[in-house]
Amino acid sequence: ILDDPDLKDIDPTVLKHCHAAAATCILEAGKQKADIAAISTCLEDCKLDKERIEQFCTEYQKNKDALEILLGSIGRSPLHITDVSWRLEYQIKSNQLHKTYQPSYLVTLNIENSDLGSHPDVSFSCTMEQLQDLVGKLKDAAKSLERASQM
Amino acid sequence: MIPPVLWQRRTSPFCSWILCAYFIERILPEISTCQLGRTFTRTCGTAGKSSRLPVSWKSSALPEEKVLLRSAVGELGRLAVELLRRGAAPRACEATARKLNIGVDTVQHGVEGLTYLLTESSKLMISEIDFQDSINVLGFSDELNKLLLQLYLENRKEIRTVLSELAPKLPSYHSLEWRLDVQLASRSLRQQIKPAVTIKLHLNQNEDQTAQVLQTDPSTLLHLIQQLEQALGEMKTNHCRRIVRNMK
Predict the structure, then answer these.
(1) CA-based nearest residue in chain B for residue A77
(2) Residues of B in Cβ contact (< 8 Å) with A82
(3) Is 0.80 topped by the overall pTM?
(4) For residue B54, which of B172, B139, B158, B179 has the smallest C-alpha distance?
(5) An example of a Gene Ontology BP annotation on this entry (chain A) (predicted)?
């Protein structure tokens, strides 16, 4: 804002105050999910004229959705799984044990941590039965999700 | 001093266990001498001669002596299996040594030899015939061979399970708990509806259980399910089936 040619004439401190005030107003409106009427009322109380209120509200409407998404993504949550990769292998022998002949799966869950931006992936191995158990449980979760969404 | 005849037989997998089996062999005549009070010509240890148990002993052993010998081998066998299951048990060795009236060192060597024999045979998963052929080389009596074979067959599955735990491993799956959550509001945004599935993944790593709490959203969950079902389906494809069949 400080580099904007249109606003060159105004005192930088005042500019900053205005900017901060506007930002706070927008964020509060977004947080409370206020509708146009509420915002208008609020701005009228601040003694802004109708034209400016209309302009403000139009701009707000345009960016409301993006704002809500942004606000919704702020906050702590457990590590979030984004993707899964798997590998199927067939063990033949190890130096301790020959003729094992066992299939096994190596599953890696890609994880995203919004705080640190780190990706501490979780890897584990499992047998076919264990993987079936895992998939069964995830399917149960999905089914209950479906039922909940239909209620 | 290992008799030359033993060195000529078998390739390296068995050479070393023959060495240890040699120790077993040294005990058995000792046990027999002590228990039975007879003097046998112990030809083992003499260079150039085959270390076979004297033929005379084989045929002249009375039923009670056979029972005693069986119990001695049974004792050693039991100690060997316990060694594999739980590790060294010096007190048990001492007790057995006292019972059989021989030195503790001898018992220990014998047990270690038997352990090695069992471990190598189980590791390679040799068939009955191969096992019998291998121990026939040592020239034990038929009954002893049968005892050893029985010991091998009874315990090989368990030994293989124990050995499989020595292989390098990644954390392995133990179980999974899930919970369906809906986020209704947060500090930065009120009036939300954000469904999420919270998952607690229990993993085993080197006998420690770790639990990790993770979260997904519904679409990722469905994606996970689809991917993992694909993984499961892979085992049933022709390619994998062919490999499994040919490997065995």
Answers:
(1) B215
(2) 220
(3) no
(4) B139
(5) sodium ion transport
